[in-house]
Amino acid sequence: MILKAVLLLGCALGISTFPMEEPEDGGKHWVVIVAGSNGWYNYRHQADVCHAYQIVHRNGIPDKQIIVMMYDDIADNEDQPKALSSIDLMAQMCMLECPRTIQRSHGAPGLLAFPDDDLHVKDLNKTIWYMYHHKKYQKMVFYIEACESGSMMNHLADNINVYATTAANPKESSYACYYDDERQTYLGDWYSVNWMEDSDMEDLRKETLHKQFQLVKKRTNTSHVMQYGNRSISSMKVMQFQGKGKKAMPISLPPVEKYDLTPSPDVPFAIMKRKLMATNDISEAKKIAAQMKAYLEVKEFIQESMQKIVTIVTGSTEQTKQILSDRLTISNYDCYQSAANYFKAHCFNWHLPVYEYALRQLYALVNLCEGGYPIERIFLAMNRVCLGN
């Protein structure tokens, strides 16, 4: 069976394909939407995914053709405001019809990090080519919300009927938005919110993917929204990937006074800072201040460790400065994937919240690999710095 697909990836990660009945579509359409993170401070990712579910569900996609993958640790989280029951929350987020399973993701150069594993760009490309050669889809579209998300798609071929837009280019962060004082966390991601609110308000039977891309690119002024792959697909109507919308008329949204735009890597510290400013309890303030201090110390330790690794590898102060300042494009996939995996296993496991900042240092490993430094030399440097060998 030929499928038409849309991938919605991000600091919420997702895939989706949608059912249409026009004869020219000639296949069955599915929606797969994945929230790629867990934890209360990542509330926005699961909220984004539930918002996406609501859009396609409202536009006539049968639940049996929608797959939603999310960690589902929000409804019963200890930080959940007691005034709102978990049943009420999930009803608001998913209208109680959202099929759920488990996943998670944050972005870094050439990878999306899940709770216990990572999706590397090399593996994603292999999967896409496999699907293409085995005729697993007719047309496929990605929406990717993640830091450095452009690095997952900037090598996407333009002749395999795949089109992608990303929240950021390969070198910059995506942004969180809509801080909620009651929940003390962010409710959305700026790029995702912008394309989804556009889908809420526009007539998807008339709007093209290209028009939506242009609108979202203009509104998402904190990062560079990018497009990759077969751009001729962008001339197709949004409804051909997000549902026919026969019964779903565009909805109006209330104005928002504050966007609270914050770089995604800064979200944990920004939340702690807001909590500190909001509390009048001295003991609570001391506790939060201690958490902030510990967070900054770990961040500095990770940065210093990477600097030491690079210094050992290059053996040059000048080359170290260059490696730590460049943002090179990944071409040596094998070296980078091996280096990143070794760094995770022997230095800082970024799947642990305390070490998540390690993702922000992986660009240096890209630069080392692109600089031609042997992987064995990189391993030895990590052993010396992280294991004391």
TrEMBL record:
The keyword NADP does not apply. One of its GO terms (molecular function) is cysteine-type endopeptidase activity. Residues 291-386 form the Legumain prodomain domain. The active site is at 106, 147 (nucleophile). One of its GO terms (cellular component) is vacuole. It comes from the Eukaryota. This is Legumain. It comes from Taeniopygia guttata. The lineage of its organism: Eukaryota, Metazoa, Chordata, Craniata, Vertebrata.
